[in-house]
Amino acid sequence: MNAATSPVLEVRDVSLGFGGVRALTEVSFHVNKGELFSIIGPNGAGKTSMLNCISGRYTPTAGRVFLEGRDVTGLSPNHRATLGIGRTFQNLALFGHMTVLENIMVGRHHLLKNNFLSGALYWGGAQKEELAHRRKVEDIIDFLEITHIRKAHAGTLPYGLRKRVELARAMAVEPKIILLDEPMAGMNLEEKEDMARYIVDLNEEWGMTVVMIEHDMGVVMDISNRVIVLEFGRKIADGLPDEVMNNERVKVAYLGVDDDEDAA
Questions:
Q1: Which InterPro entries does this one have (predicted)?
Q2: What pLDDT, on the 0 to 100 scale, is given for residue 37?
């Protein structure tokens, strides 16, 4: 994997609280352009809360988030999407009544000068623009091997395919960095292997910077450039996969893991 040296994302001393509950405490890290970067930790460590701070769903209580050197801390999720942050969710957020193709096209909505939902698709510049965006979407559909379901309604699909469609929609944003929240959760072994391959190819062949939360430690250690570990909202390790795996504090953190959910 070819990780460059210039940070595309910097998280600086981010803290997040909900009333008296502290979800994150002074967490700092950076992600280099072209990296496949993973955030791991026991359940309840604050991993999803961190992705929410990066994507704009949550505003940190303290600290800043920078995208390519620009402070995006106060910007909305939609504004961050236009600047190049794509996102998938732990709980699927597809439009079940829409086709796979339509769901993916929604991911390109902010890139359209003409509103492709307006009913004026086939007139003038709107037609040319829509066709150009459709070609990009078809490339994503081919890459993720979902051509056979492109006209199916998302709500009718098996869970593993819906996860793939959500990844497709996030890719359609053409992000500078893509945030993957447990992309392999709930999948069987074959589906996990396929998804891991897509993520590696997305990083290596498409040149997309990836930040991933994933509980499957084998996958994380096999495909990541760098890994950070959160425990009770604090960063306890940061480094290469082998370094993190051999960190004594990390070993302790993973003993006796309960079934609590991550902080929302």
A1: AAA+_ATPase, ABC_AA/LPS_Transport, ABC_transporter-like_ATP-bd, BCA_ABC_TP_C, P-loop_NTPase
A2: 98
Confidence at residue 43, expressed as pLDDT on a 0 to 100 scale: 87
How many folded domains does the chain comprise? 2
Backbone angles phi, psi at 157, to 5 degrees: -85, 155
Residues in the chain with pLDDT values less than 50: 1-4, 116, 118-123, 256-264
> What pLDDT score was predicted for residue 197?
96
Q: What is the pLDDT of residue 121?
A: 47
> Does 203 map to a domain?
no
* Nearest-5° Cα angle at 154, 170 to 158: 100
Q: For position 46, what pLDDT does the model report?
A: 95
Supply the pTM of this predicted model. Answer: 0.85
Q: Is residue 6 part of a domain?
A: yes
Residue 197: inside a domain: no
